Amino acid sequence: MIRRIELREYVKGRQQNYAAARALLPQAMEKLNFERAKVAENIEAVLSSLVPFLPSEVSYEVCLVDDCDVAETISVDDGAQLIVVNRHFIAFLRNFIELIARGIRLDDGGRGVVNYEIPEDERRIFGVGIGEYLNFGSPLISPSRQSGDLGPDIFIAAIEFILSHEIVHRIEGDDEGFDLELDGFQDFCRIRGREYRCDRRAVALVLERRKGLDMPETAFLGAVGALMAVSWIQQFTPGYIPESWHHPGSDSRVLRVHLEEPLLWKAAGLDGQPNGITGAAIRRAFRFMAALEAEPKLIASPLNHLISSCIATGSPDHDTFEARIGEIFARGRAKHVAQSLGAMWGSSERMEEEERIGNFEFPQGQLSCALFSRMYKRLLAAGPAAGELAAEIYRAKERRLNSQEP
Fold it and tell me: What's the superkingdom here (predicted)?
């Protein structure tokens, strides 16, 4: 629990280290702050739409932060509940849902159908989004919205589900305490079971809000979209380790939400059956997955592309490189960016050694190392906070150099 008078400092403390962005490209922070304010405003509006369906004796607030997995809830000493939401995940979720939504629609009979063909441009955009997230911990480029598609409404429903899931945890009084009457594996099962229960009740809450609107099935689409986005991050991150040990795999959570649609539909007092559009969205996502697995180079390597463009003339373009990295430090996860930079720097030093013994003619490793070296020195000279990220870069470089992997 936190005290109300400490709330502002608490939220501020959950923002990341922006010193590297300020050192390399100060103007990037102005754009970031504008974007953050717009996203926060939208999420607050979504929360306000849920409030009429919540117990009136509790108030809820929401803030964007950088250091949580997806979302979590903290109690405030005046009885309020603070929901913190990760801004990087929200950006990824928006892009993910937009591209999934482009290939699903309702047929003349009102049933959900999927376009199994994934055009080249959509595969490329999807690959860029995944690659940026893996390199930087946040997407930098957003696909344009297409008029008339389902993306914006599904995205809102996905945020409704995320907020509702956290709210249900608090309504249920969940915490991570152990039940000492249960054996260890039994209690592990109990704690994981809470997540499925909260998913189910969160969907029910969103469905209750939406059942008087057009296509209430969007409640299921939002939940499945949010959980699939988490699942993709898990599946494409090498050696992924979840921040919370008791969360079940997101794939199984998607499956349960989808299979329980008819029961939740009936419990909400709706006639007939859901229109099947959630299943269409799941099939569409698997088509994207298959396309990327068949052609892994579709998953972009934006850091590699940036370095190549900055040494293409045969001399390092330090100014372009550092300005772009400054923007990336502002919009990505700073520690994640630092680790990616360090790993690439380590690879460049390995390549430079190969060049010394004559295995490569073009001095790519040498030129790349020059880019990293000057940027690193700039960060060290910018003060202790930027120096922390410079140290993270250097540690990641050393890990890469000491790795046995090619």
Answer: Bacteria
User: pTM for the whole thing?
Assistant: 0.91
Q: What angle do CA 35, 40, 41 make, to 5 degrees?
A: 100
Pair 70, 85: CB distance under 8 Å: yes
If residue 84 lies in a helix (H) or strand (E), which one and from where to where?
Answer: strand 81-86
The 10s digit of each residue's pLDDT in 23-72 is: 999 999 988 999 999 999 999 999 999 988 888 778 899 999 998 889 99
Instruction: Name the residue among 276, 69, 35 with its Cα closest to residue 165.
Output: 69
Q: What angle do CA 390, 325, 22 make, to 5 degrees?
A: 70
Write phi, then psi, for 10 (nearest 5 degrees): -60, -50
Same domain, 355 and 227: no
Amino acid at 16: Q
Same domain, 280 and 307: no
Tell whether 258 and 371 lie within a shared domain: no
Q: What average pLDDT score do residues 346-368 get?
A: 83
- Do 97 and 236 lie in one domain? The reply is yes
Contact 281, 221 (CB under 8 A): yes
> Domain check: are 253 and 322 in the same one?
no
The single-letter DSSP state of residue 190 is: H
pLDDT tens profile 93-150 = 999 999 999 989 888 888 989 888 888 999 999 999 999 999 999 998 888 877 668 8
Rg (C-alpha) for the chain, rounded Å, is 23
Mode of pairing for the β-strands spanning 71-75 and 81-86 = antiparallel
- How many domains is the chain built from? 2
Residues in the chain: 406
> What share of the chain in percent tops pLDDT 70?
94
